[in-house]
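Quick log. Single chain, no ligands specified.
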Amino acid sequence: MKLIKLLANLGYGSRKEVQRWVRAGWVTDAGGRILKETDLPPHADIRVRGEVLDPPSPLTLVLNKPVGYTCSTDDPGATIYDLLPERFAHRNPLLHSVGRLDKDTSGLLLMTDDGKLSHRIIHPKSHCAKVYHAVLDRPLSGEEAAVFASGEMMLQGEAKPLLPAGFEALSEKEAHVTLHEGRYHQVRRMFAAMGNHVVALRRISIGSFSLPVDLPEGEWRIMDDDDIALLFRPLDSVRSSVPPSGC
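-> predicted structure:
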């Protein structure tokens, strides 16, 4: 029954459903031999209807999130899970987003079923800086860099000042902002406090891992160990992985 449990945990169906698949001969090895419930060849040698089996846990993805999708499975509208194979939403352990991007923010979103990795990325001690590309409604005032870096900036309704944040002006209405924390709608609220309004926001990097330039919006790819290591490498410089027009 280990084969049944494996397929069910990967989200292919309930144990009864995948048991029927096995008994129907839909699960084979790489050579086409029909597998039995008691068989469990190496993961890479298992095929479901001729297709290579999904990666085992731990699995970590990078998703180029479009505007209009939420990170919550409870949202009645479009969610990030709509951009993945349907079975990914039923994996055990659960594949979840590492932090969130709001519905109107696009760009780099990590998803993993590794709880320890997720906690490590989010924890302040890991210093995983997050860089955002913001397009603004009005020209920059020129005071943003000093105010954002002061460590004294307060957001409306909060009693604790923000940690110092990095800032780089790209044009009169575009900028990069580097955060070392993750408060609710933080970049939007920071610019609102400066009397400006964010019209487009895109996350472009976490640590030294940048959103791949060849990853189309709405698409995803599996991250390898080298990619994950970059998340914890200090950010050397603030550079967009996409041209400003990508926002």
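The longest strand covers residues 198-206.
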